[in-house]
From TrEMBL:
InterPro entries: CinA-like_C, Cyt_trans-like, Rossmann-like_a/b/a_fold. Residues 214-379 form the Cytidyltransferase-like domain. This is Cytidyltransferase-like domain-containing protein. It holds the Pfam family CTP_transf_like. It comes from the Eukaryota.
Length: 383
């Protein structure tokens, strides 16, 4: 096993479209240097977190694990890394979350096995491996190198990169692996249950960009007004990755079913537009999920957004929450809509001074559409 072989594998990882967040505890420390020292690391590496102390790992997991070095802990680390990667990645880029926890040789003799667990999570797959090393065969540095090389191989496999040349275990050492595939229905169930934070359907052939231009809504149904409003928003923003967003979880209604979500997604596939399915109905949570994004909304939504009624009647609470949205770098592009029977634009809304620079008007001469999805459903006899 040569260093050049590993460098070539890492180079292939960086040439893939995948972006990754890596969580490491108890070993595989050389993975960081291997990933970052090969040109192209910025294409792949979004974040590396090393929760080395027990308290650090507890805070990362949000719980005390039954065992710190275990299959479940590695799986939990990978799942958290996957959700973090979704938030940090360029829109449209596939992501992988990586978890590693090990109990390797140390300065004092260990009664238990020298072992480690690795896990990778992608949109449609969860992979887990347990490796038990022969005690006394290697130094700590050598065990760390073995675990690092095998974790690079695992990352490569998750990124659909060949890494068959990576072989560092002795004949008596084996790795026990298990893999679970998730179909679309299972992924959507995971989203509804809060296991993953969103799922993206990149139907548009758009070049990934740092900033998202997001139009949230129920899109029941999607209509020309939505598409035209997005086109205007793109022109105003200048650049960005346009996508529509549906929350499977509603603030005051039951969650959408998997079949309902898939039916609405089908609309976007037909017109070749990217759609994100999230589980966050509130804008302050959307801002945390999609920091730095430009949200495209109607004047009716803007009115509700700054109405203290929706913040337990507390003006200061409203202000604090929306200032928090502002601090994530998010902005709101506001198109004209009918509000209480009258057509209104942003200038007709009394936006608090502290929030004014977060709102951008879409001029009525550039976009005006008075019909809504609700009215379309009524006209077609649907509820």
């Amino acid at each position: 096993m040569t260093e050049n072989c590993i460098v070539n594998v890492v180079g292939a990882i960086h040439s893939s479209r995948y972006q990754a967040v890596v969580h490491l505890a108890g070993g595989a420390s050389q993975v960081v240097g291997l990933l970052l020292s090969v040109p192209g690391a910025s294409n792949t590496v979004l974040e590396v977190v090393v929760p080395y102390s027990k308290m650090s790992l507890i805070q990362l997991l949000g719980k005390i694990p039954s065992q710190f070095c275990s299959q479940q802990t590695a799986e939990d680390m990978a799942s958290l890394a996957y959700n973090r990667a979704l938030k940090l990645s360029k829109p449209g880029s596939p992501v992988v979350g990586v978890g590693f926890t090990g109990s390797l040789a140390s300065s004092r003799s260990k009664l238990g096995e020298h072992r480690f667990y690795m896990s990778t999570r992608t949109a449609d797959q969860l992979w887990i491996s347990r490796v038990t090393l022969t005690k006394g065969l290697r130094t700590r540095e050598e065990e760390d190198r073995v675990s690092s090389y095998l974790l690079i191989k695992a990352i490569a496999n998750a990124c659909k990169v060949s890494a068959t040349s990576v072989s560092v275990l002795s004949e008596s050492e084996v790795s026990d692996e298990c893999e679970t595939q998730f179909n679309e229905d299972q992924q959507l169930e995971q989203l509804i249950n809060g296991q993953i934070c969103f799922k993206i359907y990149p139907f548009a052939n758009e070049i990934p960009a740092e900033r998202k231009i997001i139009m949230p809504g129920s899109f029941n149904p999607l209509h020309d007004g939505h598409i035209k409003l997005m086109e205007v928003a793109i022109r105003i923003c200048g650049d960005g990755y346009p996508c529509f967003e549906i929350s499977a979880i509603n603030a005051d209604k039951p969650p959408l079913s998997v079949s309902q979500i898939k039916a609405r997604v089908k609309q976007f596939e037909k017109v070749g537009k990217t759609v994100i399915i999230s589980n966050q109905p509130y804008f302050y949570k959307k801002a945390e999920l999609f920091p730095g994004s430009a949200f495209v909304i109607g004047a009716d939504t803007a009115v509700r957004l700054i109405d203290p009624k929706y913040y337990d009647g507390d003006y200061n609470k409203m202000l604090k929450i929306l200032v928090g949205c502002k601090e994530t770098g998010c902005t709101f592009l506001v198109g004209g809509r009918n509000v209480d029977g009258a057509f209104k634009v942003l200038d007709d809304i009394d936006v608090p001074e502290e929030l004014k620079d977060m709102f951008v008007s879409i001029p009525a001469e550039q976009f005006r559409m008075d019909i809504s999805s609700t009215e379309i459903r009524k006209r077609s006899g649907c509820k």
